[in-house]
């Protein structure tokens, strides 16, 4: 019988970093060299142990989410009129994803998909939670039966925090503190004013009121002044969390869920002063993005000062595309927030992890925010419940190798309109889009702006992709809520439940 001797680092940890465990045979056939090899391995073990003591075996995870940030509004994606030096440096020192997607062109469903690892259409969440949270849908939110990535990481020993926008439900059972986040500072609704004054919660029953006080673990934060800027406040809370984590032996998961640069547009004068060449909403928007970049710089500084920078994976992206009518730019993509064209749900994104993610890399293959759940769980050596359904996949090794993690696989988005359903679906370089009750086909490698409809040239390819996304939509369930009464009536009248007419192959104008 052979015996095996391996270095004392845990195999899952080694696999997470892409390292194969070292195994040495000490069978009788190898006895002549066994002693020497044993000495070598013991030396390597001691060396590795010293290294492991210098930094945690598992990475800290800093997940940074912008809100309504345009694809073309960061320097690493070509912006020239908005300066984002911190983001650009992190991107340059890591890997930029040029084809990163969320699964819905609006905030709420996109965020639910991110944290659940599932298409929101499968558990009744294709719409934002309604603004009237005192109405019939006030008790709705992402089901407690859906195990979020925060809970998985917390159960794996991570110190967990979220700062900013929640948008996943207002009742106690949906609260971040009961969904795997130990530390929560932010607002439960879809947004908040960037400057005060704010109202106490008992002055206004609607959690979607942008004038409500933010909260910290369920308690109103009443100390903010009218000069406090919410992006700076959230960044400061992130720094507080990072500094606290440095005094703990546990790795951390921090979700910086910014509301910037979502409307209502507001920026500090000193930030707008950086963009005197811009006018109107674009100038205000640029100031908001600059404040976001400045806040992320404070997080990076805190990581470096506390000795946690080298062992922290930083992930940056946006929850959906930007609004051109509110100062954003999604160029060179077509469309924006709310669209199933690329500009609606293709976002800026990068991974940064010193010494693990090689600097200066680009990853041009499609990935989706659904992939974060299994990928982060793998890096954290966290156990995913066996009954948990996931629509994403672990992309870590493929990304590091530059290989297509989703070759031949389709990813998609669906947005229900008042009388029809918009669809966008991508497989490799091919994209189909259903808009205004018409199907179109594009080759994104040759036509990133979706200007040349190829449906007449490749009808069989269009037919196959439409059939594939139609099959995926069979898993959809009836929405648990609607963000306006008109949509509820549309569903009640049976015009939307099965996407009537959506999957017919009409391609004529």
UniProtKB/TrEMBL annotation:
Q: Does the keyword Cell membrane apply?
A: no
Molecular function (GO) terms for this protein are: arylsulfatase activity
Alphabetized, the UniProt keywords read: Hydrolase
SUPFAM superfamilies xrefs: Alkaline phosphatase-like
Occurrences of domain Sulfatase N-terminal (ranges): 59-381
InterPro entries attached to this UniProt entry: Alkaline_phosphatase_core_sf, Sulfatase, Sulfatase_N
This entry's Enzyme Commission designation comes to: 3.1.6.1
Mind telling me which Pfam families this protein's record contains? Sulfatase
Family, as annotated:
Belongs to the sulfatase family.
Q: What is this protein called?
A: Arylsulfatase
